[in-house]
Specification:
homodimer; mainly alpha; Multidrug-efflux Transporter Regulator, Chain: A, Domain 2; elongated; DNA-binding; two-stranded antiparallel ribbon
Chain lengths: ~130, ~130
DNA sequence: TTAAACCTTCCAGCAGGTGGAAGGTCAAGC
DNA sequence: GCTTGACCTTCCACCTGCTGGAAGGTTTAA
């Protein structure tokens, strides 16, 4: 199977598939003409990676999950721990963004938004001594 | 004023201050020995940028806000629009992350997390035909 | 034979800096 | 006068996760 067929099957681009290869995530064979040839194991790994990335895992986390997928001796506790950790990170990010949204909301409320230059938003960003 | 003093005053690192200069956000003078010399305008601009970044604006947005800060003829409607737009983006991000958190939570719940290799998380990532 | 649609490698760039190397300068203490 | 340490300078590379494009080779079909 050539790369564009694999791209179609996995939802990844050919570029991304080659990139994952440079990272050592897959290792397809080569045909006589130099073209990469993919087997079902490669396709499965790439599908796994695509889903892990889509779920929100980083590439390094996805690599770890792929390692666990490929390891029949894995302990599910290990997998769960990884996901739990990710969940905590995501919750932290949500809290961070919610605080940001509140700040922005306060700014929008405080600014009259007309043709005049006076602007509470600019004032807040300019002056730390603001009440 | 030398760069490390400015770093202290603004909460930015010297590296970042130099980086902002390469972006054209500030343009400090040079002393005879080649050292950068900062005036109060530079410090104010950098403080403005630091606050804009801390509030969550990207560098490009911060640059726009700085432009508006420096422009006495600005219309506050313009500023407000920019912030409103950012707020919408942040809310989108929050929704995205909340969906992610739900997926992850579902995974954590579904995985027994013991010494056995069987793991619902791995299964979900491996198999799209999962119910 | 030629055109389109593949495939290959390599180089550069996005955000927003950060780290480090290699070197010049300045102030204080001996 | 010399050394030490804390400054300062420039430049280049790296981080994430790709993406775009250039320049070229291959295959397929008309």
């Amino acid at each position: 199977m050539n790369i564009s067929e694999v791209a179609r099957l996995t939802g990844l681009t050919s570029k991304t598939i080659r990139y994952y290869e440079t990272l050592g995530l897959i290792d397809p064979d080569r045909a006589a003409n130099g073209y990469r040839t993919y087997g079902s194991e490669d396709v499965e790994a790439l599908q796994f990676l695509q889903r892990a990335r889509a779920t929100g895992f980083g590439l390094d986390e996805s690599r770890q999950l792929l390692g666990l997928y490929r390891e029949p001796q894995r302990h599910s506790a290990h997998v769960r721990e990884l996901v739990q950790h990710k969940l905590e990170q995501v919750n932290e990010q949500i809290n961070h963004l919610q605080a940001m949204a509140q700040t922005l909301q306060g700014m929008v409320k405080a600014c009259r938004g007309d043709d005049a230059p006076d602007c509470a938003i600019i004032d807040r960003l300019a002056d730390s001594e603001r009440k």
